[in-house]
Amino acid sequence: MKSFEVNFDGLVGPTHNYGGLSFGNVASQSNSQQASNPREAALQGLEKMKALMDMGFVQGVLAPQERPDVAALRSLGFAGTDAQVIERAAKEAMPLLVASCSASSMWVANAATVSPSADTADGRVHFTAANLNCKYHRSIEHPTTSRVLGAMFADQQHFAHHAALPAVAQFGDEGAANHTRFCRDYGEAGVEFFVFGRSAFDSRYPAPQKYPARQTLEASQAVARLHGLSEEGVVFAQQNPAVIDQGVFHNDVIAVGNGELLFHHQDAFLNTEQMLAELHGKLAARGGNFQSISVPRDQVAVEDAVRSYLFNSQLLSRADGSMLLIVPEECRANPRVWQYLQGLLAAGGPIREVKVFDLKQSMQNGGGPACLRLRVALNETELAAVNPGVIMTPALYDTLTAWVNKHYRDALRESDLADPQLLLECRTALDELTQILKLGAVYPFQIN
Asked: Most buried pick, 23, 395, 414, 416, via CB within 10 A?
């Protein structure tokens, strides 16, 4: 039976703005308070989805969240009508209003951790929504994320859904941004690679000193247990605390993996040689031939990797066995990164082609190509059980493009977030979107 890795890209929401909410994310903070363009951001994301579809990859869409999150503001003591809640929050606590308007759910690499059926004890695809409790504006996402994923992958015969882990620091979980899977074939048992920044209970693991380590070892272990993964099919590795302090807030900012290949910076991990040996041994036991490409620090500094998002790229397998690397325009603009990539292609290794995409609106807020997609490995039967409304087609691309042009503003500043009309615009757009994607009622305003 044929198997696929399907990329479900996050559709950028109507309130896309540069709130500078993510401490530790250099791009997010450096562009804080600039005017954003939600329409352009959504169209850039859709163009990437269509391009991958046109190249023959199975491509899906993951809907954004309802914003502003009026219910979250009510839980913090703001009362009255929806308009009054927004008005009062703008007057008394503008940072909370900005947080409640965040469109960060566009980066669906943080939405959940996904384990394919070939790896799990019960033979189903398992999803655990990430609690994202390190940042308030992201911690309010997982209830809607769970409903959206449940509407996309509804068949309980094939799919299992788990609630987010306890929303406490000890179980900080950032989803697939710190999770990679290696395998010989997407339909065969593989090795799931969990990367953590710190341990909540074991002081032997060093922690960063400047920026927070968002993923804990304990959260990664809990997800592996929930998904029914065997000890032979998992590897846990620690991020280098020094690179977290240089702005590597998730592992997908410093490493990306696919198939049998890990593409990473020399300084990405602690105990790198031991980790690589464990990955090689466990994948070999499952019939695979693990390979790694380590990018030397003297060719690409960590600072260049963070600014260009070289590793926040998509590494995709082509039918002929070669790999394609999808990178943002910022990689071409960085002379050192671009020189490295040209040398990588000339070397004739597994990565045979690099394609560049303009994702400036997302990049300025701290998310690149890999942030925008959640990878789900599915066999033919499982793919047939997915809600067909969320699978990209030429017709769906045209429909969503028209939907964005109809509903999205072309400029958004912090002061615009206080406009109650923005909430009405967002709800109108999302109500129409759930019909386009055949999701049913997944948003609070549709349920309550």
From this structure: 414
Asked if 134 is an active-site residue, the reply is no
Sequence-separated (6 or more) residues with CB below 8 Å from residue 435: none
Residue pointed to by tokens 């990437």? 48
pLDDT digits 0-9 by tens, 154-195:
999 999 999 999 999 999 999 999 999 999 999 999 999 999
At 29 the pLDDT is: 44
Torsion of CA 433, 14, 176, 126, to 10 degrees: -20
Domain boundaries, the chain: 3-67+102-447
Q: Which of 174, 260, 278, 330 is catalytic?
A: 174
Question: Considering 101, 183, 331, 371, which one is annotated as catalytic?
Answer: 371
250 is catalytic: yes
Contacts of 104 (CB under 8 A, 6+ apart): 21, 22, 110, 137, 138, 141, 365
- 185 three-state secondary structure: coil
What's the chain's average pLDDT? Answer: 94
Pick the CATH number of 3-67+102-447 from 3.75.10.20, 3.40.50.720, 3.40.50.300, 1.10.3720.10: 3.75.10.20
Cβ contact 188:118 at 8 Å: yes
Q: Global pTM?
A: 0.95
